[in-house]
Design a protein that fits this description.
Length: 322
């Protein structure tokens, strides 16, 4: 396999790269910061510099490549300029697919999200739960637009075979510059969270996503989709598990939902004036109330995935933080 990894200095891209290396594949990794890329990967990968938002920088990057892993993107639920989501997650994906097709790449493994789905009446989510309404946040809308573009422009019968992976909230050891579950765990560990937000989310270990991506590139059919998820857990129960592993005492209390929404509204308005992040981004709060329960049955049956338990995954993350 001649592989190119986009987003190799991010949490998912890093673990895709590691999964390829475990199989004896020396991947090409496109990064914006060569120094950071070399610090993370040493001499184990072939680094090229490029930016998915700058099509001219992609020339030559995709040549002599069989499979592209597109894990570059911005997973935040809030940024001062929401146009960033459109430029990176949607238009960037279009640029990547166009460059890959032009270079004759055979397969594109696209790291999407469960947010492009709508849950069934019982809140279950699987690969056939296509969203028929507009997504809630700017982040989710950008991922939805990218997904729809790939479906329309690169059908399974075409020369560029697209495979879609849909991870839920990702955590675990590895590099990340975007706020996410790892930051929540770090702040709980540092006793920096005096009160919790209501709601919860499904979690999946980043290393499992990396392994699933490589297996999908090798085993999946064009156009196939795979939900990647572990258990759904409330923030309070997640904090409780962290406290138990660290032998901490009392878990912080949970803010009532009406109060959390009021705080989110007020600090969101303040953020528009100051450019500082709100205490509780509206998109993040609503995502935590979603309550969807994704299922990874297809990934288990078709890719042979076994997902790491939350207890073991948290232990790995906390060990890395020590």
């Amino acid at each position: 396999m001649k592989a190119l990894v986009l987003g190799a200095t991010g949490l998912i891209g890093f673990h895709i790269t590691q999964a390829l290396l475990r199989q004896g594949v020396r991947p090409r990794a496109m990064v914006r910061d060569a120094q950071r890329g070399r610090q993370l990967h040493g001499e184990a990968v072939d680094l090229v510099v490029g930016d998915i938002t700058a099509p001219s920088s992609l020339q030559g990057v995709f040549s002599d490549v069989d499979v592209v892993f597109h894990a570059a993107g911005i997973p935040e639920q809030w940024v001062p300029d929401e146009g960033v989501f459109e430029r990176i997650n949607h238009q960037g994906c279009r640029n990547v697919a166009h460059a890959a097709a032009a270079a004759g790449v055979r397969r594109l493994v696209f790291l999407s999200t469960i947010d492009v789905f709508e849950p069934q009446a019982d809140q279950r989510i699987h690969e056939r739960c296509a969203r028929r309404t507009q997504a809630r946040s700017a982040y989710e809308r950008s991922k939805q637009a990218a997904d729809l573009h790939l479906q329309a422009q690169y059908p399974p019968s075409g020369p560029l075979e697209v495979i879609y992976l849909h991870p839920c909230a990702i955590y675990g050891p590895g590099p990340t510059r975007s706020r996410g579950t790892n930051d929540f765990v770090k702040e709980i560990k540092a006793r920096q969270i005096p009160i919790l937000v209501p709601g919860g989310m499904p979690l999946v270990l980043a290393a499992d996503v990396g392994e699933a991506a490589v297996r999908a590139a090798q085993q999946a059919q064009a156009g196939e989709r795979f939900v990647l998820t572990g258990p759904w857990i409330s923030l309070r129960d997640l904090a409780t598990q962290v406290h138990q592993q660290l032998n901490y005492g009392r878990v912080p209390p949970v803010l009532p939902l009406p109060v959390a929404r009021a705080v989110s509204t007020l600090t969101q308005a303040w953020s528009r004036l100051t450019g500082t992040a709100p205490l509780v981004p509206r998109g993040q709060l609503e995502a935590l109330q979603w309550g969807a329960k994704p299922e990874a049955t297809r990934a288990r049956e078709h890719l042979g995935m076994t997902f790491t338990s939350l207890d073991a995954g948290l232990r790995q993350l906390l060990d890395s933080l020590r």
